[in-house]
Amino acid sequence: LRSDLPETWKVTIDPTGAATTSIVERLQEHLHTLNNIQATLLLLGIYEDTGSLAYASTTVRDIRAAAALVEAGASLRIAAEFLNPALSEAQMKLYDALLPVVQTHTIKGKCIVIAAADGSQMNEEISSIAHKLRDLLDPDGLFLLVKTQEGIRIVARSTSDQVNVAKVMNLFGGGGHERAASALIETRNPLYPGGADPLSAIQDSLLLNLAELVQPSITVGKIMSKKPLLLSPETSLAEAARLMQRYGYEGFPIVADGKVLGLLTRRAVDRAMAHHLSVSITSLMEAGGFSLTPSDTIDDLQALMASTGWGQIPVVDPDSQKVVGIVTRTDLLKTLAKETSFVPGKLNYSATLNKTLPAPRLALLKAVANEAASEHVAIYIV
After folding, report:
1. Most exposed residue of 85, 196, 295, 370, measured as fewest CB within 10 angstroms of its CB?
2. CA torsion sign, 42 to 44 to 49 to 50?
3. pTM of the full predicted structure?
4. What is the CA radius of gyration of the chain?
């Protein structure tokens, strides 16, 4: 809670997706009757804060409150008009200026879109433009930087739990909630950068902060095997071979005093055993103290495996520096396979069309297709 609130204020914090939900519930408690306009206005508040009940932060209470408002006569038609307004001429001009300069960044596996433009001649709100660009580009996070007469306004939108735009905007003196937030950096604000191009300076600062604040959806800690079997430098070659055969692992970290010395691979052990060598496992290991932490990303894992050639990477607790897990190349491939299970390409919908379209429409469609084929032109069906 803020420390500067008057002592006479009563503060209630509700875990809802929209603050309006609390108002609706209290009106219901006092049996307050709403007219159509009041109910529609309150419904707009709930829809705006919950993404029309689609955000992950939406609660059952929000849905019940929205249902109660519809029952009270709230107009969904009017709500749709206000939630999806057509852009004015000035807004469309700014939209056209922002779209060509859109920059796409991949941060911890998340698609972040940033665009900056001069809107000092426009006095209308920017959030509608942000909604249009978000719907068009479908990023995980969208940040618009617009130069206005008051200063530089940042409007942020998120479609992912891993991109909390409220935290980002707090750094620039703004606020909001996890999915929608904004900030205004006035020219007299100490955060307002000097120089000839303040937009670029703020954009650079935004990118630096995003690198810290964006959370990966999948971390090494989520896919690693916990309590891995570790070898000490004193472990014999025969014992290492026995453990590999018993557990089926392709490699074991060699650790001394909690520090990773290297990786002993099954391939090296098999070669040594085949040649009846009597050597220590440290002479066979791939030396190096390579490791990751549970909070590292899949991109970090992929990069480390590519640069070291290690198929098994120890995972170390950042505080105790103890090995708490191991992540393998197989773990990585399984994760990447899930993320790319759908590969865009040519899909044949003819069977679906034949099954679902009414006979007259199907006949018309085939007639159009035949005519197109005779004319050697392509036909696109939406």
Report:
1. 196
2. positive
3. 0.56
4. 29
